[in-house]
Here is the input.
Amino acid sequence: MIMHDVIRRPVITEKTNIQKEASNQVTFEVDMKANRVQVKRAVEEIFKVGVAGVRTLHVKGKTTQRGRILGKRKDWKKAIVTLLPGERIDFFEGV
Here is the structure.
């Protein structure tokens, strides 16, 4: 699996910003088939940082309803990456 295919996008929410400041953890949406070792290698290669640990979990898609029409969002996989002390990943450097 190619490194850029493993990581889909960063998950940027209020909770992940708190995790980033307090615990030096960054959250990514990753490929459903990717394992912890692949996620660790991808983050180290793409962002040039050291990774202390990776936790992964499956997020179930919510069911949605608009009137009588039912739908479902896609299931996805989330990886919480703990960086080594002193390492940083900045997604919005100039903002």
Summary: The chain has one domain: 3-83.
